[in-house]
Amino acid sequence: MQDILQILAKLDWSPLYISIKTGIVATFISFFLGIFAARKVLKASGRVRAVIDGILTLPMILPPTVAGFFLLLLFSRRRPLGILLYENFSIKVVQTWLGCIVAATVIAFPLMYRNARAAFEQIDPNLVYAGRTLGMSEMRIFWTVVIPTAGPGIASGTILTFARALGEYGATSMLAGNIPGKTATVSQRIAMVIQDGDYLTAGIWTIIVILIAFFFIFLMNLISGKALRSDKKRW
Amino acid sequence: MQLILDFEKKLEDFHLHVHHEGDASRIGILGASGCGKSMTLRSIAGIETPDRGLIRLGGRDLFDSSQKINLRPQERRVGYLFQNYALFPTMTVEQNIMAGVRGSKEERQKRAQEMVRAFQLEGLEKRRPAELSGGQQQRAALARIIAYRPEALLLDEPFSAMDYFLKEKLRLEMKQVLQEFEGLSILVTHDRDEAYQLCDHLLLMHEGSVIAGGPTKEIFDNPKTVEAARLTGCKNITRIRPLGPHRICALDWDNLELTTGEEVTDEITHAGIRAHDFFPMGGDRGGDRGRFSVSPCSRYEETENRPLSPPPENIIPVENPVLTELPFEWYIVLQNKIWWKVPKDIRSHDFSESLPRALCVDPSAIMLLTQ
After folding, report:
1. Is CB count within 10 Å lower at the N or C end of chain B?
2. Which CATH superfamily is domain B3-221 in?
3. What are phi and psi of A22, to 5 degrees?
4. Over pLDDT 70: what percentage of chain B?
5. Domain range spanning residue A69?
6. Domain containing A37 — which CATH number?
7. 39-58 of B, contacting A, C-beta below 8 A
8. Is the Cβ of B130 closer than 8 Å to some Cβ of chain A?
9. Contact state of B84 with A132 under an 8 Å Cβ cutoff
10. What is the mean pLDDT of residues B267-283?
11. Interface contact flag, A136 B148, Cβ < 8 Å
């Protein structure tokens, strides 16, 4: 007990802040990009839709290290895009917090995109037609009819995205590295302390992560899981 | 308000070709399911786009392929009542009604309150669509459309998802709404009673084409074609062979010979008789004058008192009929598959005693049809 308190007192909390900050920014970006992409993909026709859908879902299926490797190739300062970004805008992605965000966004984005798409597919097209014949603009129909109706699906997509972004390890370690106070996230810190044989610190971080996870599961069920609270029998 | 429809659209199963031109204000489109009638309505609303043609409402071109005009649904000012009403599920009744109303918040709320009163939705303003009954949902959807002040009201099978009791009640309400509505209304339905009750002008559709159009009562009186007769509910249709200017042989009714009121011209291929148009002939099996007590319908008395009895030519013998009882009607299917419907009283349950030996039909009741 004494040990735990001692460790807690000296614990460097920066990984938690970095993880949460990264999670929030990545979720924010994924939220809009995911909804936008879902909308565009549903409007596209058959074959184009299948190809784009495949590409957008790929980061979720690939091992994160593979995605990380691709990102590294893309953003490396020895490669065209990396050179372009650095020389024109002084933007560094590799080994920076921006790298954390890029990695987390790419990995978590498919969750948002797929959930949003599924939610949009469930919407009765007549609702949109009704809005149109009532003279409502497309923007107004989208924000006041489509988004609220797809609400539960989009909300659970957002939470899953945040949870995924928060715990991202593979791609982040490849692209952003593990620089204490800068790019070291909770997942990376746990891996590091275990390599050092510090199981107690790893355990403390694990408990923190479990608490956060429970909080999100609870939040998700609160939003989309009325079913769990109702007594209605299901098959 | 003038309406011109003249457009085509290629569909999976057939080619939709709609033609109508006129000033009728309450139009009905009657057709079997999948005949293209909903597609017609959706094309007028701008939800679907025809391949080519013209849609003009009250002098405004909504669609004209020759001028490349295709107004967005938002600009067409037509209200569309969807089969499932399409109320916005996350909005309250009041918000739904306000959805199509422009103006300041107060104006919109005032308009919504007017509509709530007009459509008897008082007390339900804050409810969501899922908390309303089917009838209330329909009223809310109509209120939302009327609040928008459309020039035309398009009704897509508005009663198809309802039980019988509610349907009859809501049809009366709809009649009222359509009478008070100043613009044009188009009702799409497969139910001839609905069309008859709610529309002054009728278009009959079959496999994508308008096969008949005209004042509702005229169409029912004289459907002219086999499909039109079927759509207006004629149960008995037979192929015929002409025997003379007013004489036909009904090929599908055991070669029964009939005298017609109208002249049998060359193009006539079929004849139809409505199931209610038969009269029982005397010489009943019970032998009792009291036989008509089963159904004291005026039509029977009229027949008995009629000085000129129907010509003896149009006699159809009744042998081994199959009887089916409904609350207020007997369905009687004769040996030659002719349907006869007889109104009855709810308390009588036996008709076999009163079965006539033969039926007769007035020559004027025989509808001459073309294929």
Report:
1. C
2. P-loop containing nucleotide triphosphate hydrolases (3.40.50.300)
3. -60, -45
4. 91
5. 2-227
6. 1.10.3720.10
7. 42, 45-47
8. no
9. no
10. 85
11. no
